[in-house]
Predict the structure.
Amino acid sequence: MACVPKEAVNRMTRLIGDADKAECKVDKIRSIMDKIDELEIEEEAEIFQAMADPCRLKILKLLREGELCVCEIMIGLDRPQSSTSHHLSILKDAGLIKERKDGRWSRYRLSEGAVIEMLNMVLLMKDAKI
């Protein structure tokens, strides 16, 4: 956290009204924050950002059914090759998909079963909102 511990305790005390409880809460929050790896957060954010685009989410759902070449993905999305390749590149950089060269063709697949689990979790969360 950016503020000095005493400042944080004073701020928390103003919010909850008890200095001893405030100090315990600030210590607990600092302990949790100390365990958070900033590089890991950046990597995780990159994955979520890659999945956040509707076109890229469609690509992931297409690839859930199996490996596809770029031309098949282009047809599924009804997008030009340049746009499709751009989205595939972002997904690949985020580690969500793998590329396999097959002669002059590039074929793509989900990188692992965890991607399918992530898509399933999104469905569960969406259903929980209803």
User: Anything to note?
Assistant: The helical segments are 5-16, 19-35, 38-52, 54-63, 70-77, 81-93, 113-129. The chain has a mean pLDDT of 90. The beta strands are 68-69, 97-102, 105-110. The first strand starts at residue 68 and ends at 69.
